[in-house]
Amino acid sequence: MRRVLFAAAALLTIPTSGHTAMDADAAAEAPYIDDRSSADAVIRSLYSAINRHEFARAWGYFGEAKPAKDFDAFVKGYDGTDKVEVETGAVSNEGAAGSIYYSVPVAIRATDKAGGEKIFAGCYTLRQVNARIQAAPPFDPIHIEKGELKPSTADFEASLPSSCGDGPPPPKKDTALEQAKKAFLATYGGQCDKDRLATEPELYSIKYKDKDGQPGDPDKETRLFQFSCSAAAYNESSIYYLSDDISGVRQLQFTEPEMDIRYVNDDSEGKVESMHVVGFRTTGWAVNSNYDPDSHTINTFNKWRGVGDASSAGTYLFRNGDFSLVQYDVDASYDGEQDPQTVVDYNTAP
């Protein structure tokens, strides 16, 4: 918990007989705090600004949804306020479409010029837009979306909500998902399309029986996260991550054969003379891919040109906690027809 004493109140209006919010000496003595590094720091900065009569700065800590109909009404709302004691609880957060939303439980004891006290309790909601996807100014820092405070009849010390909202405490943080997001942004934040970085990944849960397990053992679970990365004229790329209790979060790598393709008269636009697998490589990119939960397979289809008459396609089957290549097809002829040949076939492997 954090308790701060300020001579001003945010989102509060106390009846007044014409007094100003605080005198010049009190404003001069108030510390200057301007910190957007965390949700509760923003709230402390808001109270600092109001305490120093810097109402324009206070107004700036809010996003598009302002706390009053206009700036004048916002300033007038603090007439008569002498001091405010603020206590904050544990900050919770939840990610959504490129943003993090923070909820801050608060309890406020406000004292007016006549010595009257009122206690309010509730929550502030703040939003932080992912800085990586903000490609052009002005930069949007963490800001207050709203504050919902209601009068409380409890003692000040007992009025602080244990969590935000009327329901149960916020759900447990999805640690694996957050780790996958961080890994994706750290590795591909500078390579993927900016708008795709703001898109939430597709989530899949794969439950299976451990091949070395004993009868009656519970199912094991591997989670699959599909991040959309980029889109060109006819190919879209995705990045996949796996997570389980043993290995944690790791990026999925796709095995692909290296091909030696020969064309008649060395003309790549002509007839294919021969095609051989000469080795294998791995890549983290999956082109035009999808996961089929019924067959537990990831399928890729890489068009070599827009009409799709030349291409390569892989099928990756989930087996006991990981995906492995079971089939790979190549259509190397640019003949206007789709006639792929299977160059790798492990469908009968155990």
Please provide a written account of the structure.
The chain has 350 residues and is mainly β. It has 2 domains: 2-158, Nuclear Transport Factor 2, Chain: A, CATH 3.10.450; 175-345, no CATH class. It is built from 6 helices and 18 strands. The strands form 4 sheets. Strands 1, 2, 3, 4, 5 and 6 form a 6-stranded antiparallel β-sheet that branches. It is elongated. It starts with a strand and ends in a 5-residue tail after the last strand. Residues 2-22 have low confidence and may be disordered.
Helices and strands in order, then pairings?
Layout: E1 2-6, H1 24-29, H2 39-51, H3 55-59, H4 71-76, E2 81-88, E3 92-96, E4 99-112, E5 117-129, E6 143-151, H5 175-188, H6 194-197, E7 202-208, E8 220-231, E9 236-244, E10 248-251, E11 254-263, E12 272-283, E13 286-287, E14 290-292, E15 297-303, E16 311-319, E17 322-331, E18 341-345
Antiparallel strand pairs: 1-2, 2-4, 3-4, 4-5, 5-6, 7-8, 8-9, 9-10, 9-13, 11-12, 14-15, 15-16, 16-17, 17-18
Which shape, going by the Cα principal axes? elongated
- Uncertain regions spanning at least 5 consecutive residues: 2-22
The rounded Rg comes to 29 Å
For the biggest sheet, the summary is: 6 strands, antiparallel
Please report the number of helical segments.
6
**Distance between the amino and carboxyl termini:** 56 Å
Structural class: mainly beta
Report the average pLDDT across residues.
85
Strand composition percent: 35-45%
The tally of structural domains comes to 2
The ordered string of helix (H) and strand (E) elements is EHHHHEEEEEHHEEEEEEEEEEEE
The count of DSSP E runs of length 2 or more, i.e. the number of strands, is: 18
